[in-house]
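Meet the record:
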Amino acid sequence: MKADLLIQNAQIVGREGLYQVAIAAGKIHQMSATNSVDATQLRATDIPILDLQKDWLSLGGIDLQINGGLGLAFPDLAATDLPRLKQICDFLWQQGVDGFLPTIVTTSVDKIQRSLATIAQFMTIQDPVNTAQILGVHLEGPFLNYQKRGAHPEQYLLPLTIENIKRILGNYSQIVKLITLAPELDSSKTTIPYLREQNIIVSLGHSQATVTEAQEAFQQGASMVTHAFNAMPSLHHRQPGLLGAAIVNPNVYCGLIADGNHVCPTIIEIILKASNYEQGIFLVSDALSPMGLVDGVYPWDRRQITVTKGTARLEDGTLSGTTLPLLVGVENLVKWGCDVEKAIAMATKSPRQAIALPDIAVGQQANLLRWHWDETKQKLVVLKV
């Protein structure tokens, strides 16, 4: 098959040296180091060439925690919202996101079931290309610790039991990819193994778990932490808690909100230096329904949130999320001094690894992003290829 485009002199996240990437019929047809025999043969053919001049090349972003957008909250989904769900997918695609997990926060069992039914229906009809793909659902609750519930409504929190998990999942366990829970709520130690048997990834969050309780949960199969530092005890030199247990465990991934408000940039620098950039940490937007809209006051379940410069708070000041697209977090990390390659990896490569998706490779859809570091303006610019 003849290539339609040849990308030259690209740096690829996680690989050394410069690469050439041939695109054919919308897919990655060939990847080779610039000085290889294959690369020389490709340069000799009559193919349009895009010279990246050492800019970085990656797949699009993957957002594992996003609560809504364009005025629509995922816990409020109904069958009539399919067109609006498509609009959100198209919007995220334009923002450089390849795929995402619509996140359903704590609400009534009936609303969770209705939202799951709507997403399941949409997943059977979603466009396969040129729009962000729904990869499954993230249930953030309702099995959360009351003391660390944050903005989650207390009346809908449930005890963590297998029976309640079955109530929540209903007939939709096959589309639930990830669930956030507080492991200390389960004295039987049976729920995490049960969820893993259903092929559902378990993330610990909104939790008061001690370091011992967290370690036990990781041994049982939990493999992630939801929005590190938020809705959990702070790191303490004698009580490292959930976060301390996660940072030192090479098999655990931590989600991170990089808006500058949920976690101070200095603390972000500390956690990045203490963990494996490319595997231990991935970015999430934690975006709420006003994402894509201007700052202001918006309804949120039966309450209101105020959005200021992309950060959302309840009336009492409780942080409830952001309205910043995922890739803004990458730009923020670089602005705060993070290495460009590692910042890109945290929005593109690491979240894929966290849910066992392949990284950039031959045969994949060529949904590629070009990242340019402007030395003069000290600014990271991202463009779709």
